[in-house]
Amino acid sequence: MLWLTQIFGRLHPILVHLPIGILFLGFLFECLGFYPGFKGLRRAVQPTIVLGTVSAIFSALSGYFLSREGGYDDRLVMLHQNFGIATAVFATVLCFARQSIITRFPEKKKRKRIRILLFMPLIVLVTVTGHLGGSLTHGEDFLLPPPAATGDDATPAVKIKSIEAADSAVLYGDVIEPILEAKCYSCHSAAKQKGQLRLDSEEFIRKGGKHGVVVKTGVADSSLLYRRLMLPLEDEKHMPPNEKSQLTSSEIALVQAWIEEGSSFDKRVMAFRQVARIKGFISSLIAPSHTNDDIPTEEVSPPDESAVRALTTKGILVVPVSEENHYLSVSYVNDRKVSDADLRDLLPLTKQIVWLNLGRTKITNEGLKTVAQLTSLRQLHLEYTAIDDAGVKALSSLEQLRLLNLVGTNLHDEGLNHLASLKNLKKLFIYKTAVTPAAIGQFSQKTKNVTLDTGSYQLPVLSSDSVVYKRKS
Amino acid sequence: MANVPFDIEQLKNISRRHFLWESAAGLGAAALGTFLAGCDARNAAPKNLATATDPMLPKPSHFPGKAKRVIYLHMAGAPSQLELFDFKPELQKLHNQLCPPSLLEGKRFAFIRGTPKMLGPQADFKQRGQSGAFISEHLPHFAKMADEVSFLKGVYTDQFNHAPAQLFVHTGSPRLGRPSIGSWVTYGLGSENNNLPGFVVLTSGGKTPDAGKSVWGSGFLPSVYQGVQCRSEGDPVLFLSDPEGVDRALKKKTIDAINEVNRQHFQEYNDPETLTRIAQYEMAFRMQVSVPEVMNINSEPEYIHQLYGTTPGKASFANNCLLARKLVEQDVRFVQLFDWGWDSHGTDENLAIDIGFRNKCREIDRAMTALLLDLKQRGLLEETLVVWGGEFGRTPMQENRENKNNPFLGRDHHVEAFTMWMAGGGIKQGMTWGETDEIGYYPINGKVSVHDVQATILNQLGMDHEKLTYHFQGRPFRLTDVAGKVISEIIA
Q1: Where is the signal peptide (chain B) (predicted)?
Q2: For the domain bounded by B49-236+295-490, which CATH number is listed?
Q3: Which among B194, B355, B445 has CB closest to A470?
């Protein structure tokens, strides 16, 4: 008989929809019945309530059997159960007492009010019970997610930001735990313990669940925590269940590596034998940054068309950086003879121009005074131009600048010093300039965030460079 | 003439053929117009002649891209991943043992017949750089680049012959007729430098790719988008100088006159190929000046020649790497390099995995490393995506052509797993994505398809591979056909 009650219990998630639907329908009939056109519906109210009551009783019963299987947060289950029973009881009372109560109020207006009043508690009970049930199956933060989690993708919340950070990271705490949290906690933590398993602390993981130990140190293949992940998706025992968000292949490989190398809870990534492999997987989990720092995030108004046309008719390229916004990229690649005065054509587009390529043009320090007014600039290419330190000094007004290419210019130590004030600068290219190593050292001290490339790379001459392999005779 | 109601001269131009063509096209256009209305604006007819006459005009990308240009290094013939990047010590233990039947059942190989023997790695490996990526000692210079690039170790294809496999990698289809990736990119983004072609192809001399020029063809896209192959020896483009007695002014007049006629023709018939012709005449005229400048490596300083290992005047991969840098420096959108001789079957000395293959490695090692370094120091690597790969990989088994051992050690074509790498243009540094099983036969993690690689290249340029389409024969086509997923794991 046990199996029968079990099946009955598992029908609960279907059955619960009946009382919710039917009782709400009864309430609708009751309200509509007040209007002359729907007068006939009044007669349907009582049978609807009876039907709703019967389904409510069956739902409550099946719910009781389901709760005996366990695996849910006890506090929530108790609350849901009590409200469920209350709903069924109140509905039953309403079935029998409704008619006699109503007939006690002969006055038409009062009768109307009492009909609604009788229904209200039932509607409230059904709503609360339904919500609690929803919280049990989908998690408490399903309907109203906590503010911190909004906007987050389904991708795991691995905290590591870069490969360098991976060096000091603890594999369990910084990588495995966030994975478990994102993909397993919804059924295996304080709120729910499917298969009597909790994965939200070292102690619980060591303890295992209904089927015993889940982590067999050193042997991933015989650890349930790994094996269940590897079962085919269609397999009933595959974890996470088919319909839930799955672990990516990198995440699975990390779990495997963690178990194989001792399932330690405090071992650092660097201490693992397969450290390169693990770092590769961790790195693959770091989602691409969707924000492109080279373009402002705020909106900008469309550029002045006549100003754009003034430039394009001269052969200057003015192209939006993408179809998504109005920011502009301007390039003088087809007009390298541009004079310093001509650059003033750019000024009406100050708000829109974020990338400017003046590389290999005839501009001089004088022209940079105009460029310095283009305060939205994020990328500036000045390579192989005749500018020098005096010109570069003017650029300190470009506070938004992220990338500056000064390859092959007359930049000296003094000019480099001026650039230290650019707060947002990330990349600076000064190959083929007269800057001295001492000045570079000072600059790097002051500006920790700037990647400075001085170039002059060379490759050694190796003996193997000239070996020609031939068949051995 | 103008007073005559029917312009006799114009009517004379309309032959029976034109009449039929126009009426058919007119009817078709009327019917198609409704279908086309909702399709991609890139595909719609140009609005006015000013923009119409320059199909290469730069266009905004779908979303902001990290890369602005691409250099694609293709090693035609397919280099062995097992001697370069995919280190398999277990395979060494199985060396000379017979291949288990489970690896052969239901498989078809280009040359392997019967039961071949396993062939252990014919190279020594070391872990390199901070990332600890394995790179073999055949590439001593490139080994220093381990922390610059992202390796894709689980690339697979479904074509085991060179020509279809090369077409697949470059056009997204193993059959002829589709546009190549460089054509799609210039079609989608245009090209910035109007003195140079947007899509340039350089081959290292020797053999051209088996699939022929279709690997840089424009397929059904207007032919202005096809790759322009520059000669690897002597003059990069033939007949650059004007014939005696013709000066540049006269040449300009001639071309202007021809183009005026072509423009009239375009206004009458609206054939995009006419635009191609106009653009090509103008481009050729400008290239007379720009090409000798950019394609001449003689003027490069000595330390650059030392860096790349270049010998001016000789056709070589190294020269082409240097040229590729010079071209992207001039904002050429897509530079495609083809090297050859990587088909290490073991049928002769040059194709032996332990002889000729090592010579090939030496030829590319310094040059491709120099390319990365040179792009980096000039600030170009930031916005230039560099892609390296072959059309498939090579088997962990030793090739036994016609069930007999080849005279030299060699490997057959392998479609299940091979290695590619990408660098620059918003790709993670020091990343390895994907791994193969213990003998390098199948990917067990991070398996990516040729279409995935193509989707990723377009993504780095700011293009959605599902949106970059061209309407042809009644439906929109795209580079990745109906597949392709951006490999987000290697994107910074």
Answers
A1: none
A2: 3.40.720.10
A3: B355
